[in-house]
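Hey L., structure's done. Input below.
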Amino acid sequence: MVDDSLLIREGVVRLLADDGVEVVAQLSDATKLLTVVESTNPDAVIIDVRMPPTFTAEGLLAAIELKKVAPKIGVLVLSQHVETRQAYELLANSVPGVGYLLKQRISHGDELFSALKRVASGGTAIDPEVVHAVFAAPTSKDPLAELTEREREVLELVSQGLSNERIGETLGVNGRTVETHTSRIFIKLGLELNPETHRRVLAVLAHLRSTAAP
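Output:
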């Protein structure tokens, strides 16, 4: 847990402890994050955005660096602010296992625990307000306009963090059919030919961008 506010750190630790989560370290800034992660090997890291010394985007920059050197560790950004440039780099160009939630929109501990569990397992947990802020620039075309109704259904389930198998069970089709739909979704959204897990994150972002648009 990385946050310059002692009260917030202690509050988060207590909430997570109620759900059986062990917090192996607490930091007031991000300067020693990589060293502590190397020695403790956590499943996930919760980090604020604005911290010492400049109180700008130290937390996000540390999160981006952490995902580069330890991509399997989940990163959940928990902040009152949205720093759009760094947030885009973390959410759109990183490997899976990332999240960005606004502190003021968390109403109970179960929401925090659920989000942390998702990023720790390689999923995403992104606040729609964050997506709206990151992708606020107007676009001339809905990125989902070319998707069929069934492809939209598949993408909606992907955005919930479901596997191809679970999606198939939900829609009453086999896994190969789901793979075909997701492949077509990737192509229509113009996603790069990176590993599928990475493209699933980008597809979810495209979905959230469309649904969060004003």
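Residues 196-212 form the longest helix (17 residues). Residues 6-134 form a domain with the Rossmann fold fold (CATH 3.40.50.2300).

-- N.
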